[in-house]
Design brief:
The complex is a heterodimer of chains A (257) and B (290). Chain A is 35% helix and 26% strand. Chain A has 10 helices and 12 strands. In chain A, strand 7, helix 7 and strand 8 form a beta-alpha-beta unit. Chain B is globular and about 60 Å long. Classes of the chains: A alpha/beta (257), B mainly alpha (290). At the A-B interface, helix 2 and helix 3 of A face helix 6 and helix 7 of B.
């Protein structure tokens, strides 16, 4: 049985028909990435599962560990063991780093376990320990992203959603963050990663899905997708234009819709 | 004369500070100035009065009872009315609080009538201590001590308890709070209960120097609001300081310039603050990203 199973969900953002029937199954321990252009509906999938869009999904079901979770409140979904790192980090700017992490463990009662997890997160992100008593709003973008991931881990999730963790970060920082995501996954936490940075995402993921206009158009193992001609052209930016004799250019033209 | 005015200023400033605190606690969570704050406090004070005068209960039980009532009232209003509002904007929430204000005012007028009562209090305003040239009444001292104590408790609550930190977290970022499993609705209820409690303390400290009738909190509410604007609607410490500043300025104005126009000072201050430092004197705040 898959850990998370989304069956044919359709979501409306007020009047916008954002997801037009999306199905997805995540097995325990896997690392899956969803790629797609702006406005394709990637983040909407995560938000729908987390229950952040009122009264949605309009159709379809979502099951986590065999139990229906669609249309539940985010507060309850978090308690089941799904953590969500939102787009744009969303740390508590006027709380200290420590307090932010503590809020991640809000639902937990086991003091010893919480202390242990503090240790674990400071091991992943040593810079957070240095900034322990600093207000989160004064951290750099990369540090805030680390804090957001650390906070999500404090919930002791079985499934972790990451929404564009590379947004607005330097290439070096992106690499660091992705290495840590990979490490988190190797410790047994299932990951669903939404990204624009297709190359980086496919390098650490096991599976990839491509979303266009609210529908999946392609699905495969990450290595295969990295080699796929269409993916290369549309998402990795490798373009092959052939010029037979220098006056005619044949360009691949493909639409999935 | 000057010292005496300062003493009365601090005394009345304590009341303003409490009202301002009550207001800011709600404002920070829901961005709504709660205009029913005063009437909620008035109703709780009447409950204390009823327990004292009609049921002949001792002070401790009456005051405790009134405080419990205040918490229940705050939670009730939030749970029954505010939570029902679907996709509310700030304006409609303000209108709801104005609705509460009228409702509670009506209930109080119907139950206790418009005649003025005197509120019995264990400490008298007429027992005095000489402080150099100024006289300080026991009531002044108790008011100040209770206010400072309450502020200290609030400080500890927001600094060290999990619920307190979660409350700050919800105030800063509702979405992030919810995805960390903090029940935002529950936090909102707690906020209203706390705010109502603080307001009730203000009401009961004020009632012995004023007279108890349904208009008890009308003036202090506006002054408390002015203090909150003066100190900054987003800072607890600032709004409390604002209360003291306003109390002192107001009594000084009343003593040296004009007693009749004393009440105008508060509004003059609101206008000046809004002109020169709209976020308030003590506000330090991260600008919210849009």
């Amino acid at each position: 049985m898959p850990l998370l199973e989304i069956k044919n969900i359709e979501t409306f953002y007020r009047l916008i028909y954002a997801l037009k029937g999306v199905s997805l199954a995540l097995d325990e321990g896997t690392n899956t990435t969803i790629l797609g252009n702006n406005g394709a509906g990637k983040s909407t999938i995560l938000k729908t599962v987390m229950g952040l869009i009122d009264d949605q999904p309009d159709k379809g079901t979502i099951e986590f560990m065999g139990k229906r979770i669609d249309r539940k409140d985010p507060e309850d979904i978090v308690r089941l063991g799904i953590s969500y790192v939102p787009e744009g980090r969303e740390v508590f700017e006027e709380l200290t780093t420590r307090e932010n992490l503590l809020m991640g463990a809000y639902r937990r009662r086991d003091r010893a376990g919480i202390r242990e997890d503090f240790r674990r997160i400071y091991d992943y992100f040593s810079v957070l320990e240095e900034r322990e008593d600093q207000l989160a709003g004064t951290l750099s973008g990369g540090e805030q992203q680390m804090l957001a991931i650390g906070r999500a881990l404090m919930n002791k999730p079985r499934l972790l959603f990451l929404d564009e963790p590379s947004l607005g970060l330097s290439p070096l920082m992106v690499k660091e963050i992705f290495d840590i995501i990979k490490m988190i996954n190797s410790e047994g936490i299932t990951i669903l990663l939404v990204e624009q940075n297709a190359r980086m995402a496919l390098k650490i993921a096991h599976f990839g899905l491509i979303l266009e206009n609210g529908r999946f158009v392609m699905k495969g193992r990450a290595e295969e997708l990295l080699e796929d001609e269409d993916v290369k052209e549309f998402y990795l930016g490798i373009k092959q234009t052939e010029s037979a004799k220098g006056y005619q250019r044949w360009k691949r033209k493909k639409r999935w819709r | 004369m000057f010292l005496q005015l300062i003493v009365s200023g601090i005394s009345i400033g304590s009341i303003y500070a409490l009202v301002a605190l009550a207001m800011v606690i709600i404002y920070k969570t829901s961005e709504v100035p709660n205009f029913a704050q005063g009437e909620m406090a008035m109703l709780s004070t009447f409950v204390a009065f009823m327990l004292l005068a009609s049921f002949g209960q001792p002070f401790v039980i009456s005051f405790a009872g009134a405080l419990v009532f205040a918490v229940v009232l705050g939670v009730f209003l939030e749970f029954v009315f505010l939570r029902r509002a679907k996709d509310p904007n700030v304006l409609s929430l303000i209108l709801i609080t104005l609705g509460f204000e009228m409702m509670i005012y009506g209930v109080a007028s119907w139950k206790w009538g418009a005649e003025q009562q005197s509120f019995p209090f264990p400490v008298s305003d007429f027992d005095i201590v000489n402080l150099g040239p100024a006289v300080v009444s026991y009531l002044n001292i108790v008011t100040l001590l209770v206010t400072l104590f309450l502020m200290f408790i609030l400080f500890l609550f927001f600094r060290y308890t999990k619920v307190g930190i979660a409350m700050k977290a919800t105030q800063q970022n509702m979405l992030a709070a919810r995805i960390n499993g903090i029940r935002a609705n529950r936090i909102l209820s707690i906020t209203w209960g706390m705010s109502s409690l603080i307001g009730a303390v203000a009401g009961m400290m004020l009632a012995p120097i004023a007279t108890l009738d349904p208009n008890l909190m009308l003036d202090p509410l506006l002054k408390g609001f002015a203090s909150a604007v003066l100190g900054g609607m987003t800072t607890l410490v600032g709004s409390a300081l604002g209360g003291y500043i306003l109390g002192i300025i107001e009594t000084l104005f009343g003593g040296y310039i004009s007693l009749q126009f004393k009440s105008i000072v508060a509004f003059l201050i609101i206008v000046l603050v809004l002109c020169f430092k709209p976020s308030g004197l003590f506000a330090k705040h991260y600008v919210r990203r849009v």
